[in-house]
Amino acid sequence: MTDYDPASIRQMVYRLLIALTIGVSLAKVFSAESVVEPSRYKPPTPEAYGSKHPDPSVRTWPAVRPSPTPMFGSNDRSRFATIRALVENQTYIVGRRIDNPAMEPGSALGSVAGFAAHRTKVAKDIPAAKLDTGLIFEDGYQSLDKVMNPETGEFYSSKPPLMPTVLAGEYWVLYHAFGLRMDDDRWPVAGIILITVNVIPFFLFLVFFARLLEDYGTTNFGRLFVFATACFGTFLTTFTITLNNHNPAAFAVFFSFYPLLKKAGPSALDSPLKLIQSGFFAGLATTLDLPAAAHAMAIFVPMLIVRPGKTGLFFAPALMLPIIALFLCNYASMGRFTPAYSEFGGPWYNYEGSHWSRLGTPGQKGLDFANDPKWVYAFNLALGHHGWFSLTPVWFLAVGSLVGLAWAGRRDAFGVLKRKPVDERLWSLPLFSAMTVVVSLVLFGFFVVQTNNYGGGTSGPRWLFWLTPLWLVGLLPAADRIGRTKWGQRAACALLAASVLSVFFPSISPWRHPWIMYFGEYYGWYDYGL
User: Fold this and answer.
1) Per mean pLDDT, which of 235-249, 339-353, 507-521 is the most reliable?
2) Fewer C-beta neighbours within 10 Å, C or N terminus of the chain?
3) Buried-state track 468-502, b at ≥16 Cβ within 10 A, e below 16
4) Cβ distance 164 to 86 under 8 Å?
5) What's this model's pTM, rounded to 2 decimal places?
6) Rounded to an integer, what distance in angstroms lies between the CA atom of residue 238 and that of residue 247?
7) 96: β partners
């Protein structure tokens, strides 16, 4: 193999791109800080500083300097609060609603200084006789993503507890072995956790994804184009700097199908180790992002039909292991097996002062409560201000090859269902593409039918992020084909550049609105009361 061998040159480019990607990711993690953006706030008014504001959905410039923090908002703060509560207080409880001591005659807490000393925060809309106190009400940890047990007044994170429980083990080591405290050492603690859960898995994903590209790619341009897209052209890069479930779910999805597609070694159908790996990561993805259960079932059912014995013996138990762990964590946290979000719309969410209790109220605006007609919501989720295609236009290339390959693989799919003989590896690229198309349509249809939620203040369609590895594989055949001409390469690069724009536009925080929404708001196309 010489320096001019195409394969060796590609390997060098892969290494360079991985180095650049991880360097950028580390820089983003180490420099992460929640920033108050003047453009997102109304001018200060006297009403803004009272106990009640005439319109609680209107943001007003803070009267007091916020505490510096690398935790960006409700989504990640809710998880960090659980991690901190588990290690420092040995409980999943992140707050309590108690009788307000300030209402008692002669109470020492009757003054503003008394409240400040106890580091509590009075919510605007709770009864005066009550006081909300605890970690999730402290400056820098305040979050909308919490639920309250109506019987006890105890607050919990509304996020599934498995991931915070695992990461609490890491914080326990930092806390007890190195003396790092999350409140006093926010950047070291948060940075180490983010590197563990986001950066290192991103690195491993890129290393193994390059191997799949070598297996299935046919041109230099196609392989390198798709790899560059994986590095810089998807929202997985954007969300590296925040503690979220979407990045880990996407990486878990990738490692669930990698052993099925990898050509080297024995077929996954005949390899217990590959079946265990695939099942475990499919189950883990489901615990991180519940709709990823569609992907788990889409790979489980064909293998169960073709190899029922080995699939039932190795894949199924590995699949259930993370799911069982999630149920046990749910029970340990709240004394029930069902997750907190199963109570959405009930008293656990709709307590007095809850952000979620405003859902459906007349005139309510916001991206959590969008009143868009279904067709408008579907358009925005695909091609509009939070669009899968409009924000990441490289997917326009992927959809063509995915549909084409899925059509070519329809015979294999029907053959599996009819238990006819199939290729010994089962997962050909056409069959895999057919699975990707079906799972994508199911996911998109689910959100269009069941919700009108854009995910709050977020830079992209985060409900769909876990599909990213599936679509990257589907992008490869299209990139190989279009890259055979200079004009095709130029068009592909233009689509990638537009995708990179969307990825890096929210550079100060992934919990920013997409550039399309900023543009539309400026010209009055949208009015969500933001």
Assistant:
1) 235-249
2) N
3) bbbbbbbbbbbbbbbbeeeebbeebeebbebbbeb
4) yes
5) 0.90
6) 10
7) 133, 154
Question: Residue 417: which pLDDT band, with cuts at 50, 70 and 90?
Answer: low
Q: Which amino acid is at 1?
A: M
CB atoms closer than 10 angstroms to residue 331 = 13
Q: What angle is formed at CA 223 by the lines to CA 439 and CA 434, rounded to 5 degrees?
A: 20
Q: How far, in Å, CA of 83 to CA of 187, rounded? A: 15
Report the alpha-carbon distance of residue 452 to residue 448 in Å, rounded: 7
Closest Cα partner for 389 from 458, 449, 444?
444
How far is 319 from 321, CA to CA, in rounded Å? 6
Asked if residue 373 has pLDDT above 90, the reply is no
Mean of per-residue pLDDT scores for the chain: 86
Tokens 């996020």 identify what position? 159
Alpha carbon distance 333, 344 (integer Å): 17
Count other C-beta atoms under 10 Å from residue 312's C-beta. Answer: 14
Strand-pairing partners, residue 173, are: none
Longest Cα–Cα distance of the chain, Å, equals 86
CB 327 within 8 A of CB 337: yes
Domain positions in the chain are: 6-26+186-522
44 DSSP assignment: P
Contacts of 369 (CB under 8 A, 6+ apart): 358, 359, 360, 452, 453
pLDDT score recorded for residue 354: 82
User: Are 338 and 344 spatial neighbours (Cβ–Cβ below 8 Å)?
Assistant: no
- The DSSP element (H or E) to which 97 belongs, if any, is strand 95-99
* Token duo for residue 219: 């041109």
pLDDT at position 305 is 86
Does the structure show a pLDDT above 80 at 101?
no
Q: At residue 399, what is the residue type?
A: V
69-108 as b/e: b if 16+ CB within 10 A:
bbbbbbbbbbbbbbbbbbbbeeebbbbbbeebbbeeeeee
Q: 219: helix, coil or strand?
A: coil
The string of pLDDT tens digits covering residues 190-226 is 999 999 999 999 999 999 999 999 999 999 999 999 9
Backbone angles phi, psi at 132, to 5 degrees: -95, 125
**Alpha-carbon dihedral sign for residues 300, 304, 309, 312:** positive
